Give the backbone structure.
Amino acid sequence: MIGASGAIAGILGAYLILFPRTNVSTLFIFIIIIRIIKVPAVLILVFWFLIQLLNAGTEGGSVAWYAHIGGFITGIFLIKILKPAPVRTYRLN
């Protein structure tokens, strides 16, 4: 399969490492309650990754579940390898 979803999954993996405590706005639907709530990114991304793992062994039609899993894990490893060093600033007196 050819698609960009594996690359997008890689970006999600990198986001997990760079901004795990950032809150993201999420649409929450429960029966008749519909709200936008803020949830830590780590919860959303781990939940998304678990869905990919659970669906990997099933017939997913045109969804490349293993591409999502591989992209996510690759994004985590690459951001650890390629993460730039923090910029140091010096104050002159």
User: Anything to note?
Assistant: The mean pLDDT is 87.
